[in-house]
Design goal:
Layout (H helix, E strand, L loop, with lengths): L1 H5 L4 H11 L33 E10 L2 E10 L7 E7 L10 H9 L3 E5 L10 E4 L16 E4 L2 E2 L1 H16 L4 E11 L1 H12 L3 E7 L16 H12 L19 E2 L19 E7 L8 H10 L4 E6 L12 H15 L2
Parallel strand pairs: 3-4, 3-8, 7-10, 8-9, 9-11, 11-12
Antiparallel strand pairs: 1-2, 2-4, 5-6
Helix pairs in contact: 4-5
Length: 342
């Protein structure tokens, strides 16, 4: 249970762990693996899932920079011919779309269509592929035959953000979606992702960020003990001395999926909050233990330009939002979307 929960840890806590373990400076270490690793996907396939009788469920394929993403759509069966307000959701660090099915059903029963998806290289989405040798001379046309390696189960916030944009692109063109009523919802790591996405895509009219890690750049001159090891890893990858990590490698505590190089150092969605005009709901845990809420969701809630609300769930730590307060957190999101996706 601890491993399942810890994999949703926020970015701030990950950086702290990297600093404490200097793991990025030791790329040769053998990664630990989870036998039910969602990067290779041995449990929870959509083909084995049966939605409740009052909820329509279908799977869709979405292309993101040439990679096929797995999406799952939930909608109220009572409204089959309508263009519906649609909520796009994606998991946090190391999770998969299947983890949001219960939430999606609750929201579909409230009248919303919900689209959840797996990032590239996770769950039932296809892998990124990379060349294993120098590219041969290009023949006429664009096609060539080469040997490639599939890379899966790693954490790259830049790639994941692009997946968000392409999923919204797909949704906006789907006949079942009202493109003027699109919302986004993220949790923990993706709680910062939705701020970044909403700041750049005006089609997002409402967002919900729950227990989100929403870091900003530190003040100039502030020492970051994680920077050195992460930059060493980035340099070794750039020089071809270190390959992508094994799928679902556990090199930072119990988190499933290794971060790539120094990309987390540049991942500061809190700096994008002033560009968010969407109606923004931030839900935090009163006893958040993985990072300080004040420079994360609380600060972001004061910086966004659109309507904003901050709700504290009393008496819980980070993972309580997936447990005893899960239903309440979803109800808060539903009320927010009802108000702002009219």
């Amino acid at each position: 249970m601890a491993g399942k929960l810890t994999r949703r840890m926020g970015v701030a806590a990950v950086v702290a762990l990297l600093a404490a373990t200097a793991v990025q400076a030791q790329p040769a270490a053998t990664p630990r693996r989870n036998p039910a690793d969602p990067a290779t996907w041995t449990t929870g396939r959509a083909a084995d899932y049966k939605a409740p009788d009052d909820v329509a469920f279908r799977t869709v394929s979405i292309l993101s920079e040439g990679v096929r993403l797995h999406g799952e759509v939930f909608a109220p069966k009572a409204r089959p011919a309508e263009k519906l307000p649609t909520i796009v959701m994606a998991h946090g660090w190391g999770g998969t779309a299947s983890g949001f099915r219960t939430d999606a059903v609750q929201m579909a029963r409230a009248g919303f269509q919900v689209l959840t998806f797996d990032y590239r290289g996770w769950g039932e989405s296809d892998s990124r592929v990379i060349l294993t040798a120098p590219q041969p001379k290009l023949p006429p046309g664009r096609k060539l035959t080469v040997e490639v390696e599939a890379v899966r189960g790693y954490v790259d916030p830049v790639e994941q953000a692009q997946d968000w944009f392409n999923v919204i692109n797909w949704a906006a063109a789907d006949p079942s979606v009202d493109p003027k009523r699109i919302g986004v919802r993220g949790s923990s790591f993706s709680g910062g992702m939705v701020v970044y996405v909403a700041a750049r895509d005006p089609r997002v009219k409402a967002l919900v960020s729950q227990v989100g890690s929403v870091p900003s750049r530190p003040p100039p001159g502030t020492a970051n003990p994680a920077a050195g090891p992460m930059q060493v890893q980035a340099a070794r990858m750039a020089r071809g001395e270190v390959a992508y990590p094994e799928p679902g490698a556990q090199v930072v505590g119990a988190l499933i999926g290794a971060p790539i190089g120094d990309k987390l150092l540049r991942w500061t969605p809190g700096d994008d909050a002033p560009n968010v005009t969407a109606a923004s709901l931030f839900i935090v845990a009163e006893n958040e233990e993985l990072f300080d809420n004040r420079p994360n969701a609380i600060l972001a809630s004061t910086r966004v330009k659109g309507p904003s609300k901050l709700v504290t769930l009393p008496g819980i730590k980070h993972y309580g939002v997936y447990g005893e307060k899960r239903e309440e957190a979803v109800d808060l999101a539903i009320a927010w979307y009802r108000e702002h996706l009219k």
